[in-house]
Specification:
mainly alpha, 5 helices, Ferritin
């Protein structure tokens, strides 16, 4: 078994990097959707959702950087083109959404897709004994689960 400089199995790390790039691609689509929602929201919930979407896209931007830096830490190369992102995205690309309910539903559904990918990475990082990635995924998941709960409460 060949080990990385971090003492992790290279083969398992290669698989992790592929999954982290998938997560990166999906976060980039999610981020861009949030920008569109922030810009295009209309109606009585404008002020509240305009601020919420800004909060979410700022958080996503930080997570995108964390994911890319984790890939680099694991001696991989983060994807960085829109073609790569859309080819791997499970989060749907949406445009021109201005309705409050449709916009919040898109965020909830997108977060649900991200959590599925993160849970897969959590399993992989556990198997690879990669505590750094494991910890990052655990933090992402717990934050996003709370956000889903809050947004679903708003939709109720």
């Amino acid at each position: 078994m060949k080990l990385t400089i971090l003492g992790l199995d290279k083969e398992k790390v290669n698989g992790l990097n592929q999954s982290l790039n998938e997560l990166l691609a999906n976060f980039q689509v999610y981020y861009q959707n949030l920008r569109g929602l922030h810009w295009n929201i209309k109606g009585k919930s404008f002020f509240e959702l305009h601020l919420k979407f800004e909060e979410l896209y700022t958080d996503s931007q930080e997570k995108i950087d964390m994911i890319a830096e984790r890939i680099l830490t694991l001696e991989g190369k983060p994807l960085h083109t829109f073609n790569d992102y859309t080819a791997l995205a499970k989060v749907p690309v949406r445009k021109n959404i201005s309705n409050d309910i449709k916009s919040v539903e898109l965020v909830v559904n997108s977060l649900s897709e991200l959590i599925k990918i993160e849970r897969n990475i959590l399993d992989q990082s556990d198997e690879a004994n990669d505590e750094g990635t494991n910890s990052m995924m655990s933090d992402f998941i717990s934050e996003q689960e709370k956000t889903i709960w809050m947004l679903k409460s708003w939709l109720a």
